[in-house]
TrEMBL record:
It catalyses: S-sulfanyl-L-cysteinyl-[protein] + uridine(34) in tRNA + AH2 + ATP = 2-thiouridine(34) in tRNA + L-cysteinyl-[protein] + A + AMP + diphosphate + H(+). The keyword Endoplasmic reticulum does not apply. Catalyzes the 2-thiolation of uridine at the wobble position (U34) of tRNA, leading to the formation of s(2)U34. It is found in: Cytoplasm. Its main location: cytoplasm. Keywords: ATP-binding, Cytoplasm, Disulfide bond, Nucleotide-binding, RNA-binding, Transferase, tRNA processing, tRNA-binding. GO terms for biological process: tRNA wobble position uridine thiolation. This is tRNA-specific 2-thiouridylase MnmA. ATP binds at residues 22-29, 48, 141. InterPro entries: MnmA-like, MnmA-like_C, MnmA-like_central, MnmA-like_central_sf, Rossmann-like_a/b/a_fold. Its EC number is 2.8.1.13. Residues 164-166 are annotated as: Interaction with tRNA. The lineage of its organism: Bacteria, Bacillati, Actinomycetota, Actinomycetes, Kitasatosporales.
Length: 380
């Protein structure tokens, strides 16, 4: 295997690598590609066409992968002075990300499509193709750091900018994928990246960041799911099973949701009610008080480790949402599962979400939550 750069946050000038830079058309990936080229690597830019029928333009900060984004990526590659290609991965993206997203909601779970895209597209389909074509590494604009260990191997760490850290959605990467990954932006703040982009003459310097789910450009997840799953009337009930209202599809709700419940009668105590459970089998949505959302423990499946799997029970911190805070936990991997005890309750954690374990700033690994334990010890 080719020797990889020793700098913890991106390419170094030591070894000259053949690098495939994934360029979304945004400022982060453009600067990442520019830094890799400036470090002396042989860089080729590639834009992933992930939509079969891309829109011509973005709507503000919503969506991505439009024709406008492709053109922005090409212009950035021209300024950097690197070859540029567009690769059509729309069918793979539909199968591995969009279809998975719909199926998870249909099953009453809450998926993270960005995490799935990193696992299945950017660091599987793209990386596999890159390696097959003779590239040494894939470079992206993610905010995270890679630390090369003196004795060999690599570790994934949080970015220095906590507001932009994206290590949570990279927790699915295994040791082999990390060996072929470059994240040049991990030691930089977003403000510094925009200043650098302007200095480099990149037209995307002030382009808004993409938000929400990239394949739902208007941000209306419920409408998107209704188009794919249709309507299916069901009941909204309280914890005792008393019917409080009706819905058009259980998939339109998420654990912890408060607004849009369409409950006719107020709670006896006058307090707001939240979604506590979603049952696709009975097409029932259960609501109750906020205290019913307190999670004390969880079980997660399909663990993926950013290195060697941990042995025995250990103390870590866990992040349970893409922009959530860290929580002290005790965790143990056994029998293909990860069992986690939270040192303090956390509200609104749902099956389908990812739990990512950290040891300090180091990412230990990730797993998909399959069940949660509430205060009453009921598994949801």
């Amino acid at each position: 295997m080719t020797d990889f750069p020793g700098a913890p946050s991106g390419p170094s000038t030591g070894s000259r690598l053949r690098v495939l830079a994934a360029m979304s058309g945004g400022v982060d990936s453009a600067v990442a590609a520019a830094r890799a080229a400036e470090a002396g690597h042989e860089v080729t830019g590639v834009h992933l066409a992930l939509s079969s029928n891309p829109q011509s333009f973005r709507t503000g900060a919503r969506g991505c992968c439009t024709l406008e984004d492709s053109r922005d990526a090409r212009r950035a590659a021209d300024v950097i002075g690197i070859p540029f290609y567009v690769w059509d991965l729309a069918e793979r993206f539909r199968e591995d990300v969009i279809d998975d997203f719909v199926a998870e909601y249909a099953a009453g779970r809450t998926p993270n499509p960005c995490l799935r895209c990193n696992e299945k597209i950017k660091f599987a389909a793209l990386l596999d193709k890159a390696v097959a074509l003779g590239f040494d590494a894939v470079c992206t604009g993610h905010y995270a750091r890679i630390v090369d260990l003196p004795g060999g191997g690599r570790e994934l760490h949080r970015a220095v900018d906590p507001a932009k850290d994206q290590s949570y959605v990279l927790g699915v990467l295994d040791a082999e994928q990390l060996a072929h990954s470059l994240f040049p932006l991990g030691d930089t703040t977003k403000e510094e990246i925009r200043v650098e982009a302007e200095r480099r003459g990149l037209a995307v310097a002030k382009k808004p960041d993409s938000h929400d789910i990239c394949f739902i450009a208007d941000g209306d997840t419920q409408k998107f799911l209704a188009q794919h799953l249709g309507t299916a009337a069901g009941d909204i009930v309280d914890a005792d099973g008393t019917k409080l209202g009706e819905h058009d599809g259980a998939y339109g709700f998420t654990i912890g949701q408060r607004k849009g419940l369409r409950i006719g009668r107020p709670a006896a105590d006058g307090k707001p009610r939240y979604v506590l459970d979603i049952s696709p089998v009975t097409n029932t949505v259960t609501v109750g008080p906020a205290e019913g959302l307190d999670v004390l423990g969880l079980t997660a499946i399909r663990p993926r480790w950013c290195g060697a799997a941990p042995v025995g029970e250990g103390r870590y911190t866990a992040q349970l949402r893409a922009h959530g805070e860290e929580v002290p936990v005790t965790a143990e991997a056994a029998g293909g599962e990860l069992r986690v005890r939270l040192e303090r309750p956390v509200r609104g954690i749902a099956p389908g979400q990812a739990v990512v374990l950290y040891d300090g700033t180091r990412v230990v690994g990730s797993a998909t939550i399959s069940a949660t334990e509430r205060r009453d010890t009921a598994k949801i």
